[in-house]
Amino acid sequence: MSNFHIKHLEEYYQVYRKSVTNPEAFWEEIAEEHFLWRKRWNNVLKWDFSKPEVKWFEGAKLNITENCIDRHLLTRGEKTAILFEPNDPNEKAQHITYNELYKRVNKFANVLKQQGVKKGDRVCIYLPMIPELAISVLACARIGAIHSVVFAGFSATALATRINDSDCRIVITSDGSYRGKKTIDLKSIVDDALTETPNVKNVLVVKRIKSDIHMKTGRDKWLAPLLDEASDICEPEIMDAEDPLFILYTSGSTGKPKGMVHTTAGYMVYTAFSFKNAFQYTENDVYWCTADIGWITGHSYIVYGPLANGATTLMFEGAPTYPDWGRFWEIIQKHKVNQFYTAPTAIRALAKENLDFVEKYDLSSLKVLGTVGEPINEEAWHWYNDNIGKKKCPIIDTWWQTETGGIMISPIPYATPTKPTYATLPFPGIQPALMDENGNEIKENQVNGKLCIKFPWPSMARTIWGNHQRYYDTYFSAFKNNYFTGDGAFRDEVGYYRITGRVDDVIIVSGHNLGTAPIEDAINEHPAVAESAIVGFPHDIKGNALYGYVILKEIGESRNHDNLRKEINQIITEHIGPIAKLDKIQFTKGLPKTRSGKIMRRILRKIAVGEMDNLGDISTLLNPEVVEEIILKRL
Ligand code: PRX
Q1: Whole-number mean pLDDT of the chain?
Q2: What is the 8-class DSSP label of residue 299?
Q3: Domain at 578, CATH number
Q4: 415-467 pLDDT tens trace
Q5: HEC string of 369-409?
Q6: Beta bridge partners of 313
Q7: Is residue 76 assigned to a domain?
Q8: Which residue among 137, 305, 345, 555 is buried most deeply as judged by most CB within 10 Å?
Q9: Which residues sit opposite 222 in a β-bridge?
Q10: Could you tell me if 423 and 572 lie in one domain?
């Protein structure tokens, strides 16, 4: 079917028009022709953004793993499904075929069942980028359990918060992980986390680094012997279209992390459709996304989207710097990668190194290059285009979010002419709108506005686990009958979108979404800290870095400031993870506040970036005098 694989700009416009004039017919046709359903739907779409309630393919029955695995067995059984490239380049890559994946997922699913996991139960997965991570995700889906993958760079406290929020009773982890020269003792992080999670009774441990670790009797079990004994046949649980498939946490500007809930049928249809079109995947291609499966990019575009298309998806365990800065390019040459999808931060870091690291390798297999997670600056775009794509590979700058489940605005390679720093045009079925300060839609081009989506799409999150009100408040209350993304955007003269960044207190650091509130809460735990405020400032490689303004209690005043800075970053590492560490910490006597006591982050942001001439009117502040002190001691 042609609109599953768009090849020309004309075709894009045609498909797009159809998708917005009659969205239900559009998605119904795609759903009908490309997937395996156990029962057909009664309604394609029911929605009401004022609640918000969105239901796609209601009444349909399916299992997503039948679509990602079983239905490929006849035609692609011996094709590599997952190509695993280990951290150590001397360790052999693994080619896991669809036949083998089928068996391994079924065995894992049977182990979960045997451990008492049932449909609807939440399973926490805290694993490094090894095949068992993808396999355990699929095993949960096979039996209808809801997976909650927590990125293995998160700390014990962050892990415990996520386990408790969705009441996971079982955790899947490993004895450790490799990353570059380091080995990380994951299991002891889990042990620490589990001191705070009374309901976890069961831990399954994958052996990866073969270290001698502590296993708690009755709670911790090695996975391998259980898998050995399990049958490799496991009938899939037949799910309703709107049954939850997974929970994935994302930071908000306030409060604890939000467990975004994605459901089964719409997520499957949209990730499969968008994967095919965004990457123009063809049958014998090798596709590689460098993200971690702990993020939405990995869920949608390492696991579900590629496998639903019967693709070969590469999983890399290691770091781009190990054994040297050429590792990505070496892997592309070694496995003849055709589509490569990474983050602007990685590109900026790699671009700083000697070009010899790139030029040593044959990158001629590449057809499409992608970026995701943060804006890509013009310089990085050109470096990627010139040196990696050799000006022959379209760059797709894909804008989307954990909440959207799939790519929303992106060029379609070889169809949409690209423009550096622009995510360009909405995907079929996606209806963006720019809003002005008064909450009205701006129809003209060449304008800035707040980016909303005004019509549902199949892979949108349906709620926040355990807190539907928060889902409404965060995304649907600012602009009536619209999903508000939290991003600002510019629309140019031909209708291309350029994402200009967050308009709330979320800061994107190295492509990771960090809310200011959880970091401030962590800092405030330090006994010498009275209050703190975090803002972002531009950083060469990370896109943004964090600048903290910290007020000390009396006990902190006489302390050595360098030591205090280290301790503050240590606390952040323990509460959240090293990704949230501050680059700069300025100690101050006060924070600029409004008369109602709200911290004026706008002023702090300007000072952090050095725009002191342009602070606006500060006379209405409760304490204008602190501004001068902050400027004087600026780092
Ligand atoms: O601000 C946008 C930025 O990342 C946010 C979403 O983060 P997260 O939920 O972690 O998902 C990241 C991976 C999909 C967005 O609100 N963002 C994502 N992609 C882009 C981007 N900003 C600019 N350009 C992009 N291509």
Answers
A1: 95
A2: I
A3: 3.30.300.30
A4: 999 999 999 999 999 999 999 989 999 999 999 999 999 999 999 999 999 99
A5: EEEECCCCCHHHHHHHHHHHCCCCCCEEEEECCHHHCCCCE
A6: 82, 287
A7: yes
A8: 305
A9: 205
A10: no
User: Which pLDDT score, from 0 to 100, does residue 3 have?
Assistant: 55
For residue 39, the enclosing domain spans: 2-118+238-319+398-489
In a domain, 612, yes or no: yes
Domain CATH code at residue 428: 3.40.50.12780
Length of the chain: 635
Tell me the sheet residues that pair with 97.
80
Residue nearest to atom 13 of ligand 1 (CA): 373
Residue 461 CB less than 6 A away from ligand 1:
no
Are 455 and 572 within one domain?
A: no
- Residue 122 beta carbon below 6 angstroms from any ligand 1 atom: no
Residues 405 and 479 in one domain: yes
Looking at the structure, tell me whether residues 465 and 415 fall in a common domain. yes
Protein residue with its CA nearest to atom 22 in ligand 1:
374
**Residues ≥6 apart with Cβ < 8 Å to 431:** 20, 453, 454, 455
Q: Are 32 and 93 part of one and the same domain?
A: yes
Nearest CA to ligand 1 atom 2: 374
Distance (angstroms) between ligand 1 centre and the Cα of 158 equals: 21
> pTM for the complete prediction?
0.94
For ligand 1, say whether the CB of 399 is within 6 Å of any of its atoms: yes
Question: Model confidence over 237-252: pLDDT tens digits?
Answer: 999 999 999 999 998 7
